Amino acid sequence: MLKKIIKNIVLSAVVLPVVIGSAVAAYPDKPIKMMIGYAPGSSTDIVGRMIANDLSLALKQPVIVENRGGAAGSLAADAVAKSAPDGYTILFAQNGLAINVAANPKLPFNGQKDLLPVVGVAATPHILIVGNNSKAKNVADLIAMLKADPGKLSFGSSGIGNSDHMAGELFLATTGMQAIHIPYKGGAPAATDLVGGQIDFYFAGMPVGLPLYKGDKAHALAVTSKTRFSGAPELPTVQEAGVKGYEMALWQGVFVPAGTPTAIVQTLNNTVLKILETPEMKDRFVKAGVQIAPMNTQQFTDLYNSDIARWKVVIEKAKIKLD
Length: 323
Hints:
The protein is of the alpha/beta class. It has 11 helices and 10 strands. Strands 1, 2, 3, 4, 5, 6, 7, 8, 9 and 10 form a 10-stranded mixed β-sheet that branches. Helix 4 packs across helix 11. 45% of the residues are buried.
């Protein structure tokens, strides 16, 4: 009897890898959930839904988007980090995730151990906008206004610790100015209040801010990248406008739970990279005001880790508390 039990155990051990291998090879054979930690209509939501749509077509399975906003994207990141590492729950995130990992030691997950970067899709500058009735016609005007009334002007963001928040904080730290931060539950409501005059300036994500500028609903002062943005080449960079050393881009990409099989990671990586090569997707990115930036798993991992290190320095220097 004992020999028979041992024989069965050995046979099970031999068969199991074959079953697991078959499951991986069949991926995906059911719908995939893409979690986005920001409100519908936000920059990251807009880009994430474009990727989800074409990923659905390429993989021949529905990719269902679930928005779980809050805590600068950490609620969605936490849910994905704690989900089964089988490729059926993925995260579409932006550099707000790296900022949060750098700034908040009390996160319920380990951002560098529990999540695996899969593929980067974009690296887009923010656009500094003000209301059409603002006295600031350029960056120098805005700095003069901030200097004249220290701590009186306000700037919006899609939430504490998000990329647009940190773009504003970096601007204030670099210029030595002060302003009141007004966090919103998403980029769309922040933009609405900017247009309505409830806040004074906003480092908006391009998919949110560029249409306002192009539609004459807001006035744009500059972009945050090192070089001018192809979607609005007439706008100077913040550096060109006189703020030396200022540079920031909003990157976005796909993550999965740590432990996800390499074959599944490669499937997602290869599929998204092929999607980004299509003329149709490139055209949609341009129209949305997004700077396409395809990154394989290693490139995206390197960017993610270096960004965490960078923001730790900035946050400590500016004494910003996000926990």
